[in-house]
Design goal:
homodimer; alpha/beta; D-Maltodextrin-Binding Protein, domain 2; 6-stranded mixed β-sheet; 15% strand
Chain lengths: 345, 345
């Protein structure tokens, strides 16, 4: 290693460009916490400076900024750059795919990280997990969705693969930045929107302008966020620094999901008890067909694209085992816990 | 901070006593990984030396060893020291309580850590989360459990609060160290045992000597492990060192659960397909009554013990919200994902 005096002199600022508005609940706060974890753990030797969306580069250009070395790090979501490769979708959210816990299992211990490294390296990036929303909500709707027929002609704000799935079922889907969603829904320009979950949705006030709040969020069952480093910068860090960065990212991955789960539980209570929001579960008939089209959509992404196919094959195998394990662990436990018995005094 | 040359001279060994055999899958491996995360992140400035169960002190004496300063850190489970206070149970596992994700939410963002700090401080310890098994299995049984009547007289190895719950339902429960379980089940000295989940259970070979593998593990729906520091040692670390230790612990908390989920999925497949293990779900009638008695048991712990009551009240409130949120997020998603549709090509 470096001699001690050299370390003291080598204080270095790392620019972290993010896809989030400043202090945005969940993701923006998580980015700030990550910066603090790194800066404090290195005693300022690596000092992370956070740039909100648009401050240094626009939100969807953070990947390019890190790839080219304009910034050392990004904090975003891999499904924001499907134009680089559709394979990136698998490292953020897949309709009817893995939950947060299952995704962590695949990435950390199921070969996911190695496939991700191989893909990112083509763009001069080293990326890792840094947070998760957990299961999102299906969204806010101005009318009920009882049958597949009700999806036809529905104008809904839903980006990414989820949007593609609903488009195949006759909906007219579009992507809108956060700030434009509320007025669009209020004016009737759109009939529905998905956002995140109770915590973020309550803050946005969607309950004031939409009647029905649907679940579950089949399109994003556990959306992962990631921190990506410029590969040259990554390789230039000392082994101790790389360990600090990996520990900080994994700690934040744990911490952000926990925050969503804690705040969603409390916000759901407020939405239902105070704002009298009408919760609706998508019917099994609707979910079955959406499930089929979700599978079809990602299979088509894999067909004829070697990069996607490699990731897809690993993902599909892992999902099969994960599904069986979920059924006899969490799913079975939730069912038992929900039975009618007295638990509290 | 210290001047640079002083840092270089100040290499310090931290003794970490654990409750696990050397390289024990899951927990033992997690303890080694935690040591590596800390040692590497500090570039050896804090060098963690891992002691397997019994090497320095017996497994259930690790808390006392850290409290007194014989060792700087322990890696164990808080429900191993109910004799100090029954309140510690809430920071590891509660029958019909929180899952891993819910527990993280309570500890990190729901007031749990503050209550834990208050409790641990009474014993000169500062503790934090460092891993989780996820939902455990209900256990291995030599005969079927169809009704509550079948629990009467059942001789089962099940420690802790889960054991107390089954005892109230007429079972004869006991605690046995890992190494004594297999021969006891083989000889018929016991009729049943719980252990962890498919990954650990497969390694132990229980499928060779018990017919039925029951789920879900109501008694340990998300067992947390913890790292505890001697409070004086903790307060003597620099802010940067404390940040490194917290990041390493939270990173490992994320990583260990992911490993259980990844390996359990694969091991379950082996148990069912290769070893023809008969999976059985506890009936709703049995689960309902066990749920009621679980609630009764922990309420009694809280009655007349101020330390327990404080933790219990926070836990019960958090559980109510968590249960509602689970129902419209993960639970609803699992149900939809399980519908009959074609997902793969």
């Amino acid at each position: 290693g470096l001699a001690a005096p050299a370390i003291a002199q080598n204080k270095r600022e790392l620019k972290m460009v993010t896809a989030w508005p400043k202090n945005f609940p969940g993701m923006g706060v998580g980015a700030e916490r990550l910066a603090k974890r790194i800066t404090e753990a290195t005693d300022g030797q690596l000092s992370v400076r956070v740039f909100a969306a648009g401050e240094l580069v626009p939100p969807f250009e953070i990947f390019d900024a890190v790839s080219s070395g304009t910034a050392e790090m990004y904090h975003g979501a891999e499904y924001y750059w499907p134009g680089k490769s559709p394979a990136f979708n698998f490292f953020s959210a897949v309709p009817f795919g893995l939950t947060a816990a299952e995704n962590n299992a695949w990435i950390y211990h199921g070969g996911g990280q190695e496939l991700w490294d191989e893909l990112s390296a083509k763009f001069n990036v080293k990326a890792m997990l840094v947070g998760n929303t957990g299961v999102q909500m299906g969204g806010w709707f101005n009318r009920e969705i009882n049958t597949l027929e009700d999806l036809k002609g529905l104008k809904m704000r839903i980006p990414g693969l989820g949007g593609e799935v609903l488009r195949r079922l006759g909906a007219s889907t579009l992507s809108l930045p956060g700030g434009e969603i509320y007025p669009a829904l209020q004016s009737g320009a759109i009939d529905a929107t998905e956002w995140v979950g109770p915590w973020n949705d309550l803050a946005f006030g969607f309950h004031k302008i939409a009647k029905f709040y649907y679940y579950p969020g089949f399109h994003e069952p556990g959306t992962s966020f990631s921190v990506g480093f410029n590969k040259g910068a990554w390789e230039g860090f000392t082994p101790a620094q790389r360990q600090i960065l990996q520990n900080a990212a994994a700690a934040e991955n744990d911490y952000m999901l926990a925050e969503f789960n804690a705040r969603n539980g409390a916000a759901l209570k407020t939405l239902v008890n105070e704002h009298k929001v009408q919760l609706r579960k998508f019917s099994d008939d609707v979910m079955k067909e959406i499930g089929r089209v979700s599978g079809e959509t990602i299979a088509e992404l894999a067909a004829g694209n070697e990069d996607v196919k490699k990731v897809y094959d690993s993902f599909i195998d892992f999902r099969a085992n994960a599904k069986e394990w979920a059924n006899i662990s969490e799913n079975a436990y939730f069912d038992s816990r929900n039975l009618d018995y007295k638990y509290t005094k």
